[in-house]
Design a protein that fits this description.
Blueprint (H helix, E strand, L loop, with lengths): L2 E4 L9 H10 L4 E4 L14 H10 L4 E4 L6 H6 L4 E2 L2 E5 L2 E5 L17 E4 L6 E6 L2 E6 L12 E6 L2 E6 L4 E6 L7
Parallel strand pairs: 1-2, 2-3, 3-4, 6-7, 7-9
Antiparallel strand pairs: 1-10, 5-6, 8-9, 10-11, 11-12
Length: 181
């Protein structure tokens, strides 16, 4: 199964065509959005209708997580399911999907062996190993922090790869070579 992860859209649609093209080109099975869909706290103009249309277009392949900026009204207006958190088992790994404002590198959920925490919220991509678990963040597709570029993450065949929009590999993790014991 091939998954494409994005996070922290914040109502900005500028990079969503690129993500849509990658989703189709790579023949992804699921689009995972790790929260903060519509609310835009910056000076950049938002295009909530385009973001909604993008997400709705993928609704049959969408796993969407509620972020700290996603209001109950936003959720009611969305024509797809938005989860608080979601667990997904893939290739014998248990993925714990969340936004990151509650569970994160400093506050791990109750996880078992072969679990991976994946969250957004921080707008910075990373892959790390802490307390016997992998913790991954695809960064932000719209509002990267500091000097980071907009990023997204692909999972395929026990491999996580975080890319920037120029196709450069930012981080990668081969789970076949890094089994948790």
């Amino acid at each position: 199964m091939r998954l494409l992860f994005i996070s922290d859209i914040h109502g900005i649609s500028i990079n969503l065509d690129y993500i849509d093209n990658q989703f189709n080109k790579l023949k992804c099975d699921q689009l995972v959005v790790l929260g903060d869909l519509y609310y835009n706290y910056s000076s950049i103009d938002s295009d909530i209708e385009s973001v909604q249309a993008f997400l709705y277009k993928h609704k049959n392949h969408l796993i969407c997580i509620k972020g700290n900026c996603d209001s109950n009204i936003d959720i009611k207006l969305s024509n797809f399911t938005i989860y608080d958190n979601k667990e997904l088992v893939i290739d014998n790994w248990k993925l714990y999907l969340t936004h990151g404002h509650i569970y994160n590198v400093n506050n791990l959920p109750n996880m078992r062996d072969n679990s991976i925490l994946i969250y957004g919220h921080e707008h910075k991509p990373f892959i790390l190993f802490k307390h016997n678990y992998y913790i991954l963040n695809p960064g932000s597709i719209s509002l990267p922090r500091n000097t980071e570029k907009a990023t997204y993450m692909i999972y395929d065949n026990n491999m996580f790869i975080i890319y920037d929009l120029q196709g450069n590999i930012i981080y990668q993790l081969n789970l076949k070579k890094a089994l948790i014991k």
